[in-house]
Structures are given as C-alpha cells and as structure tokens.
Design a protein that fits this description.
Elements: H1 4-10, E1 16-21, E2 27-33, H2 36-44, H3 52-58, E3 63-68, H4 72-86, E4 102-105, E5 113-116, E6 125-127, H5 133-146, H6 167-170, H7 184-198, H8 203-218, H9 222-238, E7 252-260, E8 263-272, E9 275-285, H10 292-305, E10 313-316, H11 323-334, E11 339-341, H12 346-388, E12 395-404, E13 407-417, E14 420-421, E15 427-430, H13 439-456, E16 469-473, H14 476-488, E17 495-500, E18 506-511, E19 514-517, H15 523-556, H16 564-574, H17 577-582, H18 585-589, H19 596-605
Parallel strand pairs: 7-10, 10-11, 12-16, 16-17
Antiparallel strand pairs: 1-2, 1-3, 4-5, 4-6, 7-8, 8-9, 12-13, 13-14, 13-15, 17-18, 18-19
Helix pairs in contact: 4-10, 4-11, 5-9, 8-9, 12-15, 13-14
C-alpha cells in the first residue's frame, strides 16, 4: 500500500522529474524540480495556498514516482519527453508531432535534390525547414524542369556506369553522367544557382524565367508559358516575399502567446534568410491556470524537442519561465549557442508585435466559435428536454448493431456528455451469444453486458456512470428490447429510438410509444442526427476491422504448416497478404520461422 506521507519523507533533495498517478496508475501530471523534496511536498502541505484547480488535481493523486537526474537541463529534457509519451491530463500539451521538410543537396559527385525531414551530419547542404511540404515538392520539380539534374541513386564515387542512359537523358532532363555524358563543372554551376535561389537570392532566376515566359508567349507556345508562370509562382510560395523582413539574412523564429481563461493561443513565425517563410498556430488548453510565462516555456520545450533544426535566435513577446535552462537545452540540441530574446525596439520588435496581434485575433475567433458552439449545444439539449419532457439531460448513450448477413455481429456504445461527443467513454462489443442476423438479440446482449457491469461492479470502472437517456438506432422493437433489459435490473432510464425515413435520413424520435418529428432546422435535430451517425460510424468501423482480420486469418490459415506465429511473422515482414502472394520463394524463406520447404508450399498455395 502506497503511503503518501511516508513517501514524502523519503524524497531526496536532488533534481529530478516527478510523475503523479491516479487510482488506475494513469499518469495525470509530470513536473520537474531542482529539489524533489521541496517541490513535491508543496502539493500536499499548505493546501490553503494552492489554486482550486491544483487542489482538484491533488485530490486525484493516489501515488507518485520520480526519476533522479544530474542537473536541471536533464530534468527539462526528461520532463518534455515524458509529457510527449504519456499526455498527462493536467499538463499543457502540444498535440503536434510533425517534422517540417527540408530541401537537401547531397554531398555527391553529381549532387541530387531531395525532400527530407531529418538532418544528418553527412556533408550535405540543407535548406529549411519549410512549413509547406507541397511547396517543397513543387520547388524540387521546378528545379528539375529548369536544370538537367539526375534523380537516380547511382554511386559515382564508386564509378558506377550504365550501358544506356535512362529516359530522362533522351527527354533532355539529365546530362547523362551515368554514360559519361555531360560536364561536371557545368552540372555544379547549376547546383550553385539553385543554392542561391534557396538562400533567397532568386532575382536572377526569376528574371530569366520571366524572359523565357514572354518569349514562349510571343511564339504562341502558351502551354510552355503557363508552365514557366507556375514555376515563378512556386518560387514565391517557398520563399514567400513578405513586406516584413528581419535584420540581414538572419534565421530565427518568432513566438507570441496570449491567453484568455483556460485557452491559450501560441503562434510561431519562421524566418529564414531574413524572410518570413511560414507560420504555425496552436490552441492550447490549460487545466491549472498557468501563467503565459509558464505556457510559453512548456510550448518551447515541447516544440523544439521534436524539431531537427533550432535557429540561433528565438524572439518572444514575453520572457519564458526557465529561460536560461531552455537556452542551455536548445544550445546542446543545436550544437552551438542560441538566445531567446524579448526585443524592445527595431525590426525584431515590429515582427513580434505583428505575431502577437495575429495570435490575439486568432484566439478571439476561436473563443467566439466555441461560444457559438456552446450556445447551439445548450439550445439543442434544452429543445430535447422540452420535446421529451425529461429534465437535466447530461449523459446520452446511443447504441447500434452492425453485421453482414448475420456474420461478425458487433455492437457500439457511444457517449455524449453535455451535448459533446466523449470518445474516451465509447465502448465496442463483439456479439458472443447470438447467431445470425438477430439485431434485437444482439442489442439485448450488449445492454445486458453493459448494465450487468454497472450493477455488479461496486468500484469505479468504465461502465460505472448512469446515463440520463438511452438512444437506440432503430424503432419500437429496439426501444422495447432496451426497456426489457432495464426492467430486469430495476433501472429507470428513459429510452428512445432514432428512426429514419425511406431515404435513410434521420426523421424523428420514438418515445413513449409515439413518434416525435424533429424540424430539420432545429438544434435538437442536428444533435440527434450527429448521435445517430456517430453510433453507426463507430459500429461500422469496428465491424470492418474484424472483417479484415477474419479475411487475413481465413486465407493464411488454409496453408498447411502456417500457424498463428508464422502467420504474424509473414504479415509483419510483408505488410499484407497481397505482398506475400507476390513474393518469391527466396523472399518468403527469409522470414523468421519459414523453412525452404514451407516457403515452397506458401509460394505454390497462392499460384493454384
């Protein structure tokens, strides 16, 4: 048994990361501390000084763990990694794992242009990161259309050659170094021009393209002129000409944060070569009413933890908490020093002011949108309560059954709380006791299992909440089945059926043996429609996943000598039954647990 008071006494006076857990051992908060003893004790002592939301979190803490580290920077890195891994409920979460693309010019005899998402110490030149992957693809394609560059993987350092060049050579899109054609010096001059464009010096190329476009137009080669025009547009997209530029050819990021209530908006602008090349915005939900300094600190740690590239300068509208530790961490990641600055004047100040205005405007729009959604939700619930004469509807559970000709029958339970879908409360059921296409029997089994848990399990569990109303996808038969189950458990819960018209569109509600038509323009209709579609979608998706597994199982299990382990090994190796079918005997034999003789059996099985 974990005794919090005793464990608090044993806490070391050392830097580290602590993990707060609830009764189900779920990590609900991750924090770091210069002294674990002092920091963790603060949650359980002097509770009058704690914010009500922090007290709410503490009330859910059943136990805690901790990890010792050498210094504060290590604690910062570990904290960010654990938050990313466990997504604790009470931490500020940056729900974004994207890696922005770079343009890579390889370090080879005849360099290639590639789109990559990770930096390597391979002597290549990297440009970016760019927020638009599509623009990067278009840019590489544009360069390949202008310059005869190779895109093959031949190793010219090992003097690889071919007897015949590829099609690109005959189309004039490659100099043909694979057959000894072309001049390396000319090739490298093309690469040099591309590098200048990627550094932001695109005037010479744009002038050349504009000239070529006019010439093509005068010759009435309008398709060629249009392609050149698109090339010019692609340059503008990826090197975005902005009215605001920064000092010199500086690479930096600008980050601004603004908050209202428990919502915070963070916007980051990327400046490369002195020009703004893109931006991203993030809406963050805060559970513990952190300050903007704390929110900005959490954002910077999580954002750059997942990024390959760290600029030398990050400008912000306020100074983040733990500024010096974050700078040390980012300097280690970057490999050289970097600074976080709050500019007071000049172009950097103008930039951060612009970012802040954008963040504030975006947050206002988001709050207005949420207010509208809240008003619509409240209106929908009130209309539903009035139509059904049921007060205080909060938790709605809806059920649907899905099968094909009675096979692989499944049931779905979806939940709406306070008018909003609550996916973490969804449950799915594989029908066990009913054979064939018996929707009533299947529904009865689902409801018996659901409410049997509710009645018999005293402790809090996934079925411990009592719904305010049940909604069945169907008519009077489904409603009657649900009421029979509730009567068995002596539960008084209203039940209604969601009926559709001949065109399979939501029509109304069956309640107390009568059908209530819903005006299609009402908020109640929209809510009921959403609930019915969501229940159907959840059931169908579960049924499809089972069907796919069953199809795979039935095909591979017909092969003599292939059991569950070998079947899984085959699927993990090839990825699909189609790939297994296309494989050679040698490829099949390379799979763990597959002998040469069994590989022949599998190969011949798919060719019968």
């Amino acid at each position: 048994m974990f005794n919090i008071k005793e464990e608090l006494k044993r806490l070391p006076n050392s830097p580290g990361v602590y993990l707060m857990k609830d009764t189900s051992e779920t990590i609900i908060y991750v924090g770091k501390a210069k002294s674990l003893r002092k920091r963790v004790r603060q949650y359980f002592q002097n509770k009058n000084n704690l914010h009500p939301k922090v007290l709410a979190m503490v009330s859910h803490i059943e136990r805690f763990d901790y990890v010792l580290v050498h210094n504060e920077v290590e604690a910062l890195v570990l904290e960010a990694n654990l938050i990313k891994e466990y997504h604790p409920h009470y931490n500020i979460l940056l729900r974004d794992d994207k890696q922005y693309p770079y343009i890579k010019i390889t370090n080879e005899k005849y360099p290639r242009l590639l789109k990559v998402r990770r930096l390597s110490k391979d002597g290549a030149q990297y440009f970016g990161p760019y927020p638009s992957a599509g623009a990067v693809n278009d840019m590489i394609t544009m360069f390949e259309n202008i310059y005869p560059l190779r895109n093959c993987t031949m190793n010219f350092e090992k003097n690889e050659t071919r007897k015949r060049p590829c099609l690109n050579y005959f189309l004039g899109k490659c100099l043909g170094p694979c057959v000894g054609k072309g001049d390396e010096e000319t090739y490298l001059s093309y690469i040099k021009e591309i590098v200048e464009v990627l550094k932001g010096n695109s005037r010479n190329m744009e002038a050349m393209l504009i000239k070529n476009m006019h010439e093509a137009s005068q010759k009435m080669e309008f398709e060629r002129a249009a392609r050149i025009r698109d090339m010019i547009n692609h340059i503008d997209v990826i090197l975005e000409k902005q009215s605001i530029t920064t000092v010199d050819d500086l690479d930096m990021d600008g980050i601004a944060v603004t908050s209202q209530g428990n919502l915070s908006e963070v916007q980051i602008f990327f400046v490369r070569g002195g020009k703004i090349v893109g931006r991203e915005e993030y809406l963050l939900h805060t559970e513990l009413e952190e300050t903007d300094e704390e929110i900005l600190s959490a954002f910077i740690k999580q954002f750059y933890m997942q990024m390959n590239y760290v600029p030398g300068t990050v400008v912000t509208n306020i100074e983040p908490g733990e500024k010096s530790q974050i700078e040390d961490f980012l300097a280690q990641k970057r490999g050289k020093t970097m600074k976080i600055q709050v500019p007071k004047r000049g172009r950097k100040k103008s930039l951060i002011d612009m970012i802040y205005v954008n963040a504030k405007e975006s947050l206002v729009r988001e709050i207005n949108k949420k207010d509208r959604a809240c008003r619509e939700k409240n209106t929908a619930i009130k209309q539903l309560e009035q139509l059904l004469e049921i007060p205080n509807i909060y938790r709605i559970e809806a059920y649907d059954i899905s099968n094909i000709s009675g096979t692989l029958s499944v049931g779905s339970m979806i939940v709406y709380e306070d008018g909003k879908k609550t996916p973490r409360e969804y449950r799915k059921f594989r029908i066990k006791t009913i054979q064939g296409a018996d929707d009533y029997g299947s529904l009865k089994e689902v409801l018996l299992r659901r409410f049997n848990h509710y009645i018999k399990d005293a402790e809090e569990n996934k079925f411990s909440k009592k719904p305010d109303i049940l909604m069945m996808d169907g008519g009077k038969g489904q409603v009657r089945t649900a009421l029979e189950v509730l009567n068995k458990f002596n539960l008084d819960i209203p039940v209604c059926g969601l009926v559709k018209d001949d065109k399979h569109n939501t029509r109304g509600i069956i309640f107390n043996q009568r059908e209530i038509l819903l005006p299609v323009t009402s908020e109640a209709f929209r809510l009921v429609y959403d609930i019915q579609e969501e229940a159907h979608r959840f059931a169908i998706n579960y049924h499809r996943s089972l069907r796919k597994k069953e199809m795979v199982k039935s095909v591979l299990d017909e092969i003599p000598g292939v059991g569950k382990t070998r079947r899984n090994n085959l699927l993990n190796h090839f990825g699909s039954v189609v790939k297994i079918k296309e494989a050679t005997v040698e490829e099949i034999e390379s799979v763990q647990g597959i002998s040469h003789s069994l590989a022949i059996v599998i190969y011949e099985f798919f060719r019968r």
